[in-house]
């Protein structure tokens, strides 16, 4: 069973809207997008990369600002700090990828390394943080966190619909990666009351 299938199977065991379910489904989508960027049709790689970087920005900002404070309490400060440090490294690589042509050899090297790093990061979350969240947080707290995570996805779309071309929402994921991260953080902040 692939990581994507495992993530989806684990997610299906949790209630709709549970924070861990939302994060597992995002992990599955991130893994699919990495595969599509690296192995998909050349004509679509740039478009898929834009979706991947937007989802990574939203996912990591939401984890850092919504999930990580709770994970710090239930899984420990060192665990939370380690995951935040890994996310910071991923952002640095994404900023460098922004400067490269998707078809270039350097892009291929960096995206392969980033995929390995992000996969290891997700595995650590799934092995260390998620069990602590499931064990230490009640269903209501996880549902509240899940509502915020879903509100962030809604506020900061990770895959603009093709018919929305030219709109602000369609353009959300364009521009330098640092700007995408800033917009993702703004989206997290704008949903502060969404889970309550």
In short:
With 196 residues, this protein is mainly alpha-helical. The chain has one domain: Four Helix Bundle (Hemerythrin (Met), subunit A) (Up-down Bundle), CATH 1.20.120.
List its traits:
196 residues, mainly alpha, Four Helix Bundle (Hemerythrin (Met), subunit A), 8 helices, globular, Hemerythrin-like, Hemerythrin
Structure description:
The chain is mostly helical. The chain has one domain (3-189): Four Helix Bundle (Hemerythrin (Met), subunit A), CATH 1.20.120. 77% of the residues lie in helices and 0% in strands. The chain has helices spanning 3-12, 19-39, 45-75, 77-98, 105-136, 139-155, 168-171, 177-190. The longest helix has 32 residues, at 105-136. It is globular, with a radius of gyration of 16 Å.
Ordered list of secondary-structure elements with their pairings:
Layout: H1 3-12, H2 19-39, H3 45-75, H4 77-98, H5 105-136, H6 139-155, H7 168-171, H8 177-190
Helix pairs in contact: 1-2, 2-3, 2-5, 2-6, 3-4, 3-5, 3-6, 3-8, 4-5, 6-8
Structural class: mainly alpha
Strand content: under 5%
Could you say what the CATH architecture is?
A: Up-down Bundle
- Computed CA radius of gyration, to the nearest angstrom: 16 Å
CATH topology label: Four Helix Bundle (Hemerythrin (Met), subunit A)
User: How far is it from the N-terminal to the C-terminal residue, by CA?
Assistant: 37 Å
pLDDT < 50 runs, ≥5 residues? 159-174
Total domains:
1
Order of helices and strands: HHHHHHHH
Secondary structure tally: strands: 0
Helical fraction: over 70%
What global shape is seen? globular
For the biggest sheet, the summary is: none
CATH level 1 name = Mainly Alpha
Number of helices: 8
State the oligomer: single chain
Average pLDDT figure: 85
Protein name: Hemerythrin
Organism: Streptomyces cacaoi
Pfam families: Hemerythrin
Domain Hemerythrin-like: 19-133
């Amino acid at each position: 069973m692939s990581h994507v299938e495992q993530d989806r199977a684990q997610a299906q065991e949790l209630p709709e809207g549970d924070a861990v379910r939302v994060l597992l489904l995002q992990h599955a989508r991130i893994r699919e997008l990495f595969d599509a960027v690296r192995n998909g049709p050349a004509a679509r790689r740039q478009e898929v990369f834009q979706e991947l970087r937007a989802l990574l920005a939203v996912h990591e900002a939401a984890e850092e600002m919504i999930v990580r404070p709770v994970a710090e309490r239930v899984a420990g400060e060192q665990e939370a700090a380690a995951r935040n440090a890994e996310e910071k490294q991923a952002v640095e690589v994404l900023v460098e990828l922004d400067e490269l042509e998707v078809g270039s050899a350097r892009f291929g090297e960096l995206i392969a390394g980033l995929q390995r790093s992000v996969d290891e990061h997700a595995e650590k979350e799934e092995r260390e943080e998620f069990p602590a969240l499931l064990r230490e947080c009640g269903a209501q707290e996880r549902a509240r966190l899940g509502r915020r995570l879903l509100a962030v996805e809604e506020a900061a779309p990770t895959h603009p619909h093709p018919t929305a071309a030219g709109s602000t929402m369609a353009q959300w994921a364009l521009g330098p990666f640092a700007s995408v991260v800033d917009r993702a953080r703004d989206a997290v902040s704008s949903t502060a009351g969404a889970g309550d």
